[in-house]
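Plant intracellular Ras-group-related LRR protein 6 isoform B
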Amino acid sequence: MDRILKAARASGSLNLSNRSLTEIPDEVYRNLEGLGGDDKWWEAAELQKLILAHNSIASLKEDLRNLPFLSVLNLSHNSLSQLPAAIGELPQLKMLDVSFNSIVKIPEEIGSAVSLVKLDCSNNRLTELPSSLGRCLELSDLKGSNNLITNLPEDLANCSKLSKLDMEGNRLTVMSENLISSWTMLTEFNSSKNLLNGIPTSIGGLSRLIRLDLHQNRISAIPSSIIGCHSLTELYLGNNNISTLPVEIGALSRLGTLDLHSNQLKDYPVEACKLSLLVLDLSNNSLSGLPPEMGKMTTLRKLLLSGNPMRTLRSSLVSGPTPALLKFLRSRLSEDEDSEAVTTTKEVITMATRLSISSKELSMEELGLSAVPSEVWESGEVIKLNLSRNSIQELPVELSSCVSLQTLILSKNQIKDWPGSILKSLSSLSCLKLDNNPLRQIPSDGFEMVPKLQILDLSGNAASLLDGPAFSSLPYLQELYLRRMRLSEVPSDIVGLHQLRILDLSQNSLQSIPVELDLSNNNIAVLPPELGLLEPSLQALRLDGNPLRSIRRTVLDKGTKAVLQYLKDKLPEQ
């Protein structure tokens, strides 16, 4: 022992591992001073590296503070139940390994070990990590696996240099969005064998992440933001509750291993067939078939499919060699050209639905839809819904449940009947666009179903106004578009819409315009000069109760003809 201690006195490195020690020799706490009376003390080195692994050491003394130059301390595989507060008095400590002990708590004083780069406290009895670790700004490698930790302190967000994090085998239920978004240098992240119920959307900010292991949790979905993890080469998500894959996963061009075994997948998206995988584990899911496009995944060396209720593939193919299965799938590509388009539409709908969760706006424009997809009323509180440029013939009764809907765009479809009963349930609707449909006549009381409308577009529906629906039922209307309606005259009650700001009657067959226009009691400050063009036929223009600034009172007092002539004179000469 003395020989080893004397050698360490000269080198600054001491290794006492596997020596059946029950305590640390006092000479170590004294920084090896006093060893060998004839030593040249000025040639002695400060102790910088201390390895005490695989012993039976039960405690550390506070005298540890006497080793201020210590940079490496390995106490793994001992019998420690706690660490001394003096651990924070080692200002040059860079690597601390206390794994495989029985430690129940790490003292907050560790936050004073500001040079700490690597901490391994795995395989202990910890229920938490000290929040003071957030002061260890140089920390890049943190291993806390196989403990009893239920959450991570938010202060760890300060550890922006963290590149490796291993929390496998704990009791974590959630990963903080803030923490994940702060660890932009992360290259390896293991939080497998926990109780996580989701993946933070901020995961997409980890552009340097190479290995992500979240297997054996309770995760039900993969966020579409995973597309931001473009350095990812290994992704382990087996033993979870995942039922669908985001199409964005197909953009992870560097991914080589994708483990999705023991989930609830019902299909494998065509988009994910773009991956250049070596290993794909889909065993023990609910797959009944595979997309023919998977045959193009020629880089695959191992495709695991056992434990799926495959109905479209022979069992000999499923359990046979991967190249044979891929060849069979490729042979089906020509037979399934139509299925790709259907799947693509489905994936677009899925993506649009996902985006609507945060934006509350759902766009399914020009998807060749013949019916409104169920995702519309299943996607939560959508405020704006765009279903234009499809072949939809009617609105389903389920749409009535979208009570938060404010904007409904149904332009360029095949709707024939005014959907009054549905619209009546959409109590928040303020914008309705039904232009360019083969819409038949709107019932006389049709507009009573949508009394809060501010914007209405019925352009191109020539037959819709034959029954004379009452525009007076729309007192809040601000914009009205009636282009290409074959109108020979303006519906008389339009002039009573006091809040109307835009009236588009272009491309009609108008022979006359209303003789009276009542704009009284509004907030009109300026009149457009174009209004003067109505001078030949407009007999009465009511403007009282408006804060007009563009026309002098002396002109207003002269009446309608004078006002219209005044405006007409303001028009630029053509």
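thats it. Residues 337-359 form the longest helix (23 residues). Residues 335-343 have pLDDT under 50 and may be disordered. bye
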